[in-house]
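Cast an eye over this sequence plus tokens and walk me through the fold:

***
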Amino acid sequence: MRKKAIIIGAGIGGLASAIRLAISGYDVKIFENSAYAGGKIAEFRKKGYRFDTGASLMTLPELVKELFILAGEDPEQYISFHKLDISCRYFFNDGSTITAYTDPDKFICEIQQKTTAQPQYIEKFLNKAKELYELTAKLFIFSPFQKLSTLMTPEARIIARKLYKLDALIALHRRNQKSLRDKKLVQLFDRYATYNGSNPYKAPATLKIISHLEHNIGAYLPKGGMYELIKALVRLAEKLNIQLNYNTTVEEIVMKDRKVTGIRYSDKFIAADYIICNADIYKVYDNILRNVKLPGRFKNQELSSSAILFYWGIRKTIPQLDVHNILFSGNYREEFRHIFNHKTIYHDPTVYIYISSKLISADAPKNCENWFVMINTPNNTGQNWNTLRNEARKSIIQKINATLGIDIENHIDFEDFQDPERIEYFTDSYRGALYGPSSNSKLSAFYRHANYTKKIKGLFFTGGSVHPGGGIPLCFASAQIASQLVVEDSGK
């Protein structure tokens, strides 16, 4: 008789875990409290515009393709990807720009023309980022490294002999200063700390591996937009006879003798041999695990940043902009001090603008563009978000107008928004933190909740709030770990 597995949450981690378990022969059911799958990855349409509402760029698409191959399916029949020639266009306060080409040679040439940095600096930096990824990925990203057995592997022994290469004892900003020696280039590479909601002036330089994924391997966008990724995973799940239950809020993980027996919702009990939670780890312990407390070492961690986002239909095309664009703050350190220390928003925030219609023409009416406009903010600790959002909107418009030489407000066809309160409400993310715990300490990776708990047999975790962290590739990695732990536990 097939073992029964329940997945709580239909984000990337939940869908990928469900698919892996179904391929391994489990009877799998997914329970999602929203009306749709995707978690933080969603989309909406209005007045002829289509918007991705969450993630806007991908790396490591082979992690997606692997799921279809494992299921005996052709990935190309489900999803395909644009490989971007430009990962991002950067605008600085002095009016200068840097175009981050995904071809390393073109990028180095651009750096040589636009900065004071020597080509060998950036080349050496990216090579070290690649070396670090290749050294650590198997252990720290694709394995449950908190387990003693993992720490006894050959990979762990190699890392133990090369601990200095982890670069964990120096902040990312300081490493970038030492390695790149150009103020603009340092700011550009400091930005990668924000990919998991962290502060480059505190987060360890280990995070430079993120730049390797984007610059050495490549940046991608699914054809049709980010939500096509979710649609493809749902189609595969349905083909594998995974039962998807939407608008269903799990109220309790039921246990007997510290072993899961199933879930309860709306006075119904569904039995299970295994449960994988794709919900925010803080919400799991607060809401659906009865009489089990989140250990203090996790509860006391500094949370990641959140965001304010505006979705603007723009009745104009702006040739200076590419698909992904950054308008940098003139004082990056002060911006992060406001976010993490003062829990408020700096008057000159860094503005991110994602325009998928630059690549996907159907995403906006003719001669129009769909602008996803975002700034980093503190997570929700009870601030007056109506006031902060309105102030931020003024600062954003002022910065766009000054940088691009336009009056953008005259071209806004319509507007919608998200802020930390809405993010918390719609995605059930604790305090609206986009990535769960931040990486603002040297040992943050070791304090992230594991994909399992010794307290409860049969319960596992996946998603951005647990090991190995937030972001699309890491959510796929956590699904691989959690599902493999289930398989190992059941002796398959």
User: Anything to note?
Assistant: The mean pLDDT is 94.
